[in-house]
Structures are given as C-alpha cells and as structure tokens.
Fold this protein.
Amino acid sequence: MKYFLNSTKDRELVNTALYYNMWLLLGRNDTFNETNQFLNLIDDYIQSVTVYPFGTTTLNVNKNQYGNCIYDFKTNKISIYLYGLENSEESDYIPLLYNAINQFHRAFLYICPQVFSSKSFDKVKDDTRYSSLGGQIFVRDNSTLDSIGNGYYGKAFSEVFSNMVSLTALYAFDSHFIKSRYLVDNIFTSNVKYKMNVTDNYEAISFITRLIIASLSNTTDIKYQDLIENGYGMYNVTVELQHDYVLKANDFVYAMLCDPMMIELEFDKFMGKNNYRAFAKYLDTLYESEGIISSDAMISIISKLKEFAIKRFDCYYENGYFSINNYKTLIANFDNVVNSMPKMYLPYYNDYINNSSYAIIPERKSKLPTLKKAFQN
C-alpha cells in the first residue's frame, strides 16, 4: 500500500480511520499478531491512499465529495482518495474523519468477502458473473468482466450502511462523541442524522435500510454498544438459538461486510426467486434519482418488508428455533423501526393501516417450510 500524504496530521487521520474500522471488525481485544496479519492482508488489496489538501478539486475529491474508494475488478486492487487536514479549519476535523472512516469501510466491503467468507464471492450463471462484493452484487460478463446493464444492485443499502458504520465508529471510539453516551445500537434502529447534505430521499432510504436490518435480526439479546465497550467486533457475532441452532446475531450486518449475496438468498427463500434483485434495483433507482419517494411507494415498501419479516420470524418460531418471547420482541422491534419513519409519511401510513388488515397477521393458508428446506441455496 502506497501513501501519498501532505503531513504527519494526514498520517494520523488515515491511521485513525483505518484502526476504527479494524476495531469494529476485530475488536480492541484482538492480539497484536492478528492485527498485523490483517494489516498485511489489506496491504495486498489497497494499492494506494492519496490525501489532498482540503478544498482541492480533482476527479475524485471536491467540496461535495470529500473522498472516493475505487475498486478495479481486473486488477483486484483498491485506490482510496481523501481530503486531508491541510488548509482545513478546526471545525472541519469531524467531517474529514467521518469521510476517511467511510472510505476505508468501503474498502473493507471489497476485501472482507475475499478473506473471511468460506464461500466464493463469485458465482457464474449463463456466462454472467455475479460478484458479492462492496456491500452489493455486481453483474458482469464472465469473459470480458464488463458490466451488464446497470452493473450492480444493492447500492442503496451499501451506501447507507457505510454511513451508519462510519457514525458507529465515531460514537464508539472518538473522544468528541464518546462523552455523549449515545448508544450505537440506536444508529441501526432510529433516525440518526450525521451526513453532509442530508436530503429527504436519503432519509427515506436510510429508514428502509433500518427496516431490512430489523427483519434480518435473529436475537434481541445482543447489544452492539456492549460488544464494542467490552472490546469485541460487531460483525461476526453469533447467537445460539433453541435446539443448539447457531446463526449470526444479524444477517444483514454480517452479510453486508462479508457476503451480500446471503441477503438475497434469505430474502428470496421467503419472497420468491429473483424478488430481492427486483427490490434492490428498485431501491437503487429511487436512491439515485434523488427525488422524494412518493407516499404510495413508501407504503408499498413497508408492506413488502413487513411481509418478509413476518414470514421469516414465523418460520423460525414454527420450527422451534425462536422462543415465543424472542419472536414477539423481534416483531415489536420491527414495528418500532416502522414508527421511526420520516414524518412526511406518517399521515399516509396511518390512513393505510386504519383502512387495511396490514397490522393483522393473516391466517396462514399453507404450511411454512422447514428450516432444512428454507435454507437450501
């Protein structure tokens, strides 16, 4: 990894961002040798880190984009570009650190599926390669590696999740935030704003991301705040359910870093083949349009994710893996996230549930799949 820096302060900024991300991944209890092993691993993937004086305008940094992380599929190398502290004011420090954390997390999204997942991050079907990387799924021609169509799906979730993780790192480790005693778990369950130029569109997509996080939760006992304070990482956390069945504490949090395709497989098991792909592409379109998501579209999205959550939680409960208390609490947690929706949608949502059976779990007309069947790829 080559560094192109302007000062020792830039080096400190880069190192802080890198270590905050490593602590969220490995924990602060991690041994010196294991940390060095991981540093050596990422050194093979990150080709360069270039830091520019604050205010510089280039292809990769400007006043509206403080940094960029670019992955080259053909070389399997990552280039990171950042604004540094030179020419900045004291008030610029937190936004610059937040951005540096964000860009290194994006790099981790490309690295971790290749070094931590037991499965290949690439799947080939009909000469199309699907790559489970970068918190999303890339679609390319298997021969040329050129993008097919839009080239990806799941970008909206990846963008929002990276911002959530960056904020988590600040609240978990940075002295400017720790004293606030804000619980990092709230970042994944409530409307926490810390992003430059937050728009109504981004706030809505952030809300939708919190919904899918809640729908892919497997326990109500794990608190990220407690894990971090006790020196543990937050991604690869497992929980033992009834009958000694072991799952990740939250499939979304783990899969975004190590295997985004895992989210697709889980979603499609309960919603139907190719359902996640269509849903993720739809959200990507809404995210990139930067327009306000209509009330009808939002109600439809909430309904879809509610259906997925209920089907999924029902399956685990009916097959004896969730206790009744865990089952009820997971549903209640999902509904609490629903109630954190942007205020502009509340009147439409209230009208919807008052005039529909949305809030009532419909009578099951067919037997739920057993877990053995449900978890077949």
About this structure: The longest strand covers residues 46-52.
